[in-house]
Amino acid sequence: MTTKINKITIVLILVIISLFNLGMKKNEIIKDPKIFKNIYIEDINVEDLTTRQAEDKINKYYHPKNINIRYNQKTWVINKDIIKLNYNVDKAVKLAKDYTRTEDNLLNLRRIFDLAIKKQHKIKLKASYDEAKLSEIIESIKEEIDKSEIDATVSISESSQIKTTESKDGLEVDVSKLKEKIYEMIKEKEIKDIYLPVKVIKPKINTSDVKSINAILGQYSTSFNDKSSRGNNIYIAGKSTSDIVIMPNETFSYNSATGPRTWSNGYKSAKVIVGGKYVNGEGGGVCQVSTTIYNAALISNMEIVEVHNHTYPSRYAPRGKDAAVSYGYIDFKFKNPYSHPVYIKNIIKNGAITTKIYGCDKDREKLYIRTDEKHEEEKIYVNTYRVYLDNNNQKEREELVAKSIYKIKNQ
């Protein structure tokens, strides 16, 4: 029995030594040793092949190809040589050959033993390419295809004539998606035609939006001396806040629309209230424009987001119906609550400014504005309400819109 075990041990030792010599000799006379058994590159068995044989075999199945990108009737070719596409077959074959020929003999022995008992070792081809050159080609394709979306426009004359232009969709190459597809193909070594991914960019304002603007939702007028510096400021502020489309749920900001009320923007010095006193300052009179728009917005059922009253009651608007503004400090803002856009039109002529807010006739509400006043010592307290009517012109509900506190002059 002992003799039989010794014989088996000797045979195993001889097998291991022969495998060891076959797979990992350092100073082999053979110039191009063959790859050990059960070694694969991708799914191709390269055992018992020389370097040249293995490279030839792999190259039959895996070789770089041009990449064709198609869009409608157009085709772009990304040349494999220009982007230096390479599957690095030589590096993979070297890894296969050296797998059992490392500097660590014990490691080599373990690997040889695993391979000898039919445990496979797989090596992946690692592709390389010129990323900068690929991006450059993609950018040139993008320049050919991309086009900006065009918003529909609406313009309304002083006589309420409405003109519109149609919107147009934009196009934009989805570069991230395109690159992802190319990277995946290169990684998997499966080159095939790609249909160019292009995103359709919808305009912010489309044709149906502007076509829905067909009626006046509310309007309001105030008068002024158009021969004064104040009149000049009202004209400039009125023009800068006119012909503006406000989309559903979008907020109009008076200060954003006018910008700074400075001399460089055409404004002149006129009376303004600072610290409760009237003084000359840039942009005096712009509050009359904000007040006029405010009252039109109230009647049009706009959602009032921000409004402030003046220190003293205004000459050009009833108490509780003024909107004081100061650039960088206080603003007048309202939000469009409808599912259709609205359009602000200011008409300034003959010493009067009229604000008309246009929208869809389906959004018109029956309402009126009322105020309640309370006088206490040197102050006037005013609540401003919006009162809604039903189809029989009966009060349906009301809402508190603003609370104002005024000082009484000369007290």
TrEMBL record:
Domain of life: Bacteria
Membrane spanning residue stretches: none
Domain named YoaR-like putative peptidoglycan binding: residues: 76-190
InterPro entries in UniProt: Glycopeptide_resist_protein, Vancomycin_resist_VanW, YoaR-like_PG-bd
Name assigned to this protein: VanW-like protein
Organism: Romboutsia hominis
Organismal lineage: Bacteria, Bacillati, Bacillota, Clostridia, Peptostreptococcales
